[in-house]
Structures are given as structure tokens and as C-alpha cells.
Write a structure and sequence with these properties.
- With about 325 residues, the chain is α/β, with parallel strands linked by helices.
- α8 links the parallel β5 and β6.
- It is globular, with a radius of gyration of 20 Å.
- Helix content is about 30%, strand content about 20%.
- The strands form two sheets. Strands 1-2-3-4-5-6-7-8-9 form a nine-stranded mixed β-sheet.
- The structure holds pyridoxal-5'-phosphate (PLP) and iron/sulfur cluster (SF4).
């Protein structure tokens, strides 16, 4: 048995922007970033719940699980630490820092796999380490088989004003140049409607002004966003800001994250109701990231799985279908 001091601790880390929201009494933000007092220390016994490192990483930084798509973890560093993070054990450590040689090795891997046409930069937060990200974007721009680059980030939500600083203005300028080389998409992690502040909208507009589409990703979090009204407000606000909700994830079953995992039935009911009340564009795909398998969609309550001759309509009435 590990002694207490051997158990990895996930340090609290917040930005000035997040702190301001917590101080102003925003409990939904506080619950994402602060450890509750008296809560047991997280025990990350299954520190790699998605099986990323062991089975799918051909070179440092890359995860190649699907034929044409590669996930590139540019670092394990983020401006603020979300306490429910799947990669909690690594975040904030130097473990994922890439040397110039690591980057060249990863680029060589992408170059030698021409079926890879879609690269997802993730982490850690690619906008938190702009120099490394610029090197990677530059390298990818020389590989003609790469047709799309997506950048997953939470920095616009955690520190919108950092997008006014020189390193990030320079990186944004690069994005404007490289969009000729490949399609660029920005994926921003949003969990609660109060995260969409005016400063955050300013960052989103910057991407739009560059002609770069913005999508969102969300995690179901118990007591934070597992209510219909909260997610309805979140997805409607994103939609009207021209951000397209892409995925909503079931919180990973990593040890130490139990307090965040929502009831599956509640999640399905919320997603079923959102589908009936919002535009299809405003409803993300509801998935669970199954260890080593990928993002598997979770069925909504319109169908009873054993019976494909009947489904339930948006008013909850059972209808017979003329199939077969
Ligand atoms: C999510 C993910 C992708 C991208 O999946 P999409 O469904 O295309 O968004 C690629 N590789 C890994 C390892 C992923 O986890
Ligand atoms: S921003 Fe993303 S990668 Fe960073 S701690 Fe939060 S959930 Fe994890």
C-alpha cells in the first residue's frame, strides 16, 4: 500500500480571471477548480484511463488510435488545473515537455504516414505554450498530406486577456497564414454558461475574424452542469456566439474523479430533452470515451434498443414505424 506522501497530488492552480469569478461567488467555477475541504486526496491508481500511453503512442507526444487522425499532446501544462481532468496525474508536470528532437521525431512520423490527414493538438493547452505550438504548426504546414489541424484549448475561458499578449497575437497571426495550408478548427472547452464572458467572446471573435471556425467540448459534471436548464443556456449561448457544440463527454471513470461523475440516466434524459428543444446544430454528440476504444455515442431515450419498429417522439408518444 502506498503511504499518503507517495500518492500523487493534483495541485490547485487558477488564473486571475478564474479567481475573480470564484471571488464574485460563482460556485460552478469554484467546484471545477477548488478541492472541497475535507475531500479525500485523489488516488490516481488508474492514471492512464484511456490507455493512451501504453498502446497507442508511437513516439513521444503522439497518440495514433484512428487511422487518419492523430492526437498530439504538445505538453502537460495548462493555465489553470481543472480538478476533473482525465490527465490529472500528468497536468502541471514537465513529463510531457517536448524537445526540438521530440518534435522532429513526431513530424517525421506524421510525414511517413500519409494516411494521417487530420492532426489534433491537445495537451495540456497548446495556447499556453505558444512557442512549441508555433514550431509544430510550422512543421505540419510542410507536410502536404495534412489537411486539417484542430487545436483543443481552455485558455480562452481561463485567461481571455492573455490573447492580447505578444506571444499569442503572434500565434494567431500564424494561424491566419497556415489556414491556406490546412483547414484549422479551434475547439474550446466550456462547461457552464457563466464561462461565456464578454472577454471570452472577444477571443472567439478574433478566431472568427481570421476565418477560423470555433467548436466547443463539454464534460458532464455532477452538481455543476447536470441540469437541463444549465446546458440549454450553455449550448444556446454558444450557438448564438457562432460556436458549434461538438462533443459532450461523460466524465471519465478515473480514480479520484468520482465526485464529478453524474448519474447516467439523468444525463440521457437531459440530452434527450435538449435534442427535442434545441436546433440540431446546438446539440453536441453525447459520448463516453471508452478505455482504448474511442468516443462511443450514448443512446438517447427515443428508442428501446431491442425494438426497431417503434420509437418515442419529441412529445414522449410511442410511434409505430413502417420499417421492414
Ligand atoms: C478524440 C480523439 C481523436 C479525434 O476524434 P474525432 O471523433 O475525430 O473528433 C483522435 N485521436 C484520439 C486519440 C482522440 O482521443
Ligand atoms: S484545461 Fe483541459 S487538459 Fe488542462 S487541466 Fe483542464 S481539462 Fe485538463
Amino acid at each position: 500500500m502506498a503511504r499518503d506522501e507517495d500518492v500523487p497530488q493534483f495541485a490547485e492552480q487558477i488564473t486571475r480571471h478564474i479567481k475573480k469569478m470564484i471571488v464574485s461567488g460563482n460556485g460552478a467555477i469554484e467546484a471545477q477548480y477548488r478541492k472541497p475541504t475535507g475531500a479525500p486526496s485523489p488516488i490516481f491508481s488508474d492514471s492512464d484511463p484511456l490507455g493512451e500511453e501504453i498502446r497507442f503512442s508511437p513516439v513521444k507526444g503522439l497518440v495514433h488510435k484512428y487511422g487518419n487522425r492523430i492526437l498530439w499532446k504538445v505538453s502537460y501544462r495548462c493555465a489553470a488545473h481543472c480538478q476533473f481532468c482525465t490527465r490529472a496525474r500528468q497536468i502541471g508536470t514537465s513529463e510531457g515537455d517536448l524537445s526540438e528532437a521530440d518534435i522532429q521525431r513526431a513530424l517525421a512520423y506524421v510525414r511517413s504516414h500519409p494516411t494521417v490527414d487530420d492532426v489534433i493538438l491537445s495537451g495540456g493547452d497548446p495556447f499556453f505554450t505558444p512557442t512549441i505550438t508555433a514550431t509544430i504548426l510550422n512543421g505540419l504546414s510542410q507536410i502536404s498530406t495534412v489537411r486539417a489541424v484542430r487545436i483543443g484549448t481552455r485558455l480562452p475561458v481561463q485567461s481571455p486577456l492573455s490573447f492580447e499578449t505578444k506571444p499569442l497575437l503572434k500565434l494567431m497571426e500564424l494561424l491566419g497564414q497556415f489556414k491556406k495550408n490546412y483547414a484549422i478548427f479551434i475547439l474550446i472547452h466550456f462547461n457552464h454558461p457563466t464561462e461565456i464572458t464578454d472577454d471570452v467572446v472577444t477571443v472567439i471573435n478574433r478566431f472568427h475574424n481570421l476565418g477560423i471556425p470555433v467548436l466547443s467540448q463539454t464534460v458532464f459534471l455532477r452538481g455543476i452542469n447536470d441540469r437541463f436548464e444549465i446546458l440549454r443556456d450553455l449550448f444556446r449561448s454558444l450557438y448564438f456566439t457562432r460556436v458549434i457544440p461538438y462533443y459532450i463527454y461523460r466524465c471519465d471513470y478515473a480514480k479520484g474523479l468520482e465526485r464529478y461523475v453524474c448519474d447516467l440516466g439523468t444525463e440521457r434524459e437531459i440530452m434527450t430533452r435538449l435534442t427535442s428543444e434545441l436546433s440540431g446544430i446546438a446539440v453536441p454528440t453525447y459520448v463516453v470515451d471508452v478505455a482504448g476504444r474511442g468516443k462511443i455515442p450514448i443512446p438517447l431515450n427515443y428508442w428501446t434498443l431491442a425494438d426497431e419498429t417503434r420509437c418515442t417522439d419529441f412529445d414522449g408518444r410511442l410511434i409505430e414505424l413502417n420499417v421492414g
